[in-house]
Amino acid sequence: MSRIDRSMMESVFEAEELITLDEDALMAIPHEPTRAFLRDIGLPGQFDTWLQLDGPLADEGVVTIVDAAGAAELAAKYPGFGVDTSRWMSIGAIGLDSFALDVENGTMYCVPESGAQPCVLNSGIEAFAYFLYALEVERPNYDLEVAEGPIVGNAEDRLQALMEEVDPVALASPDSTWYLVLENVKHLLDYR
Length: 192
Hints:
Blueprint: H1 6-12, E1 18-19, H2 23-26, H3 32-40, E2 43-44, E3 51-53, H4 55-60, H5 68-77, E4 88-94, E5 97-102, E6 108-111, E7 119-122, H6 125-138, H7 155-166, H8 177-190
Antiparallel strand pairs: 1-2, 3-4, 4-5, 5-6, 6-7
Helix pairs in contact: 6-7, 7-8
């Protein structure tokens, strides 16, 4: 059963800002649950607080798969990684950490800016989107720019608990971008 749907995404993001893909673009993605998500639900194209979508994806709905040279470069840079990066679709970034989607099995990966080996970010794009949704739902409790009433403390703890429950693999690696996000939420809370 799905944890996220279009109406949930539209409750926190503008409908016209949710990037969905047409059937031509989806031909590059054999993983059916990922295809359905990208066709019917979509990712926020304007989420400046966190996610910066890949330019061609956000601007034109174009899927960019790592080419042979890019896959060889990643294999050389991370020799012990052992994942076929030639099936990776560029999704975007949070901060300087970039994200890729394995179009064969739907797994989301992050490539940390720190130079650490890539790691699983989420088990699938649906969990990734659910985390973005949760960040926006919680935002009035950690971002003073949007807070309209009293801030309910412990947003970082609530988000981490939700992440651990919904997709435990997301926090399995200490290099996961989600730790950076949680640190930033805590940082914002410290300055309220």
